[in-house]
Amino acid sequence: MAATNNPTLTAEPVLSKVDSEGGGYGTTGAINTTAVGTGETRTSLSSDAEAAAVAAGLQQLEARNTHWYSYLLTADFWLVIAVGQILALCITGTNTFTSFLSSVGTVIPAFQTLFNYALLTLVWLPITLYHYGWRKWLGIVWRDAWKYFILSFLDVEGNYFTVLAYYYTNILSAQLINFWAIVCVVILSFTLLRVRYRLVQITGILICCGGMGLLLASDHITGSNGGTGRDMLKGDLFALLGATLYGISNVFEEWFVSKRPVYEVLSFLGIFGVCINGVQAAIFDRHSFEGATWNGDVAGWLVGYTLCLSIFYSFAPLILRMGSAAIFDVNLLTANFWGVIIGTRVFGLTVHWMYPIAFVLILCGLIVYFLSGSILGDSKKPWLGENQRHGVTGIGTAKLRALHEARKKGLVVGNAGGVAHQA
């Protein structure tokens, strides 16, 4: 991208301390800065001033003389990779604890996930109420509860049907069908969110899928594909349905966290997840309790499963903001590799020579995906409108980065006329 002249503002907006996790509902009026218990600094800022500041910051960022590899040199890129691998390790942890539970006859897929949604509620609902108060929170419930119900329903059912798929079909078949989640994300993002993928991005996704193909091939060669399932057709259909629900829920969550604070999204995901999963567990898991094993080890495995899954849910919004739902799903392809590494220590498995090659291939695909020359990567969302004006000013968003850039360049001043600095 060629460099252009630095933009100037005819009327400098007034901006004090930037809100690191703003409400996103639009506030107008004078600046009102308040410290909160989570270490954030919240700001009530004129929407016109904020829009001007974001516009100036985006112009500065996009006017840089970038190269095809410029985004790879940013901290954002490496953070996306790091968070993606944390999420993959969390998924590996949940799979490991589920294997422990299954080994002693405790197969309760809906019930064991119930604790995750309960923990999300206990952690994020008090934070949401602290920021909003009961009156504003009830207003959100009245206006947007149905949207969060749909998000939670998609998420809960995606978890449920994927677990059922692994019960009926073999591992190789289920993982192959899970590629469909990436296809769903790309199609939905293109049609509903107006995301336009470059050829290099599609190439990167295909390279990652090729790496996953090597992992599956090595599983087949070593006989680690699980053999013949109980009912292959039923299992494959469950896997296809679970992957579809996962893809839809990931795109929906990306839309949500780009427009709303993370604590709001996760609190409602927890509340409705408890309700939906609780009903489902009462209906489908009650017979499983009769033959289940209950002891100290099972309790520890449930705690481990819940902590891994809750960490996964809490970090997922960051990669959805800084990257996209597509990058989110592609990063999770490495979970199979980490699973084998843990399996060598826990279950006595051996690492096939294809595994390191496949892991490197997936990481190379992620690098290729970002060879587009954009310094903002996928953090600038097309559905948020001009200058991201419909987006939340939250951690990982292009909007917050633009505000930081505008302040650093001296394009934004405080109400005393000096350059504003974040606390």
From TrEMBL:
Gene Ontology CC terms: membrane
Main location (coarse class): membrane
InterPro entries: EmrE-like (IPR037185), SLC35_F1/F2/F6 (IPR009262), SLC35F_Transporter (IPR052221)
MF-aspect GO terms: transmembrane transporter activity
Cell location: Membrane
SUPFAM superfamilies named in the record: Multidrug resistance efflux transporter EmrE
Topology with respect to the bilayer: Multi-pass membrane protein
Transmembrane segments: 68-94, 114-133, 145-168, 174-192, 199-217, 237-256, 263-283, 298-320, 327-347, 353-371
Coiled coil start-end: none
Organism superkingdom: Eukaryota
Keywords per UniProt: Membrane, Transmembrane, Transmembrane helix, Transport
Region (Disordered): 1-21
Membership in a protein family: Belongs to the SLC35F solute transporter family.
Protein's name according to its UniProt entry: DUF914-domain-containing protein
Lineage: Eukaryota, Fungi, Dikarya, Ascomycota, Pezizomycotina
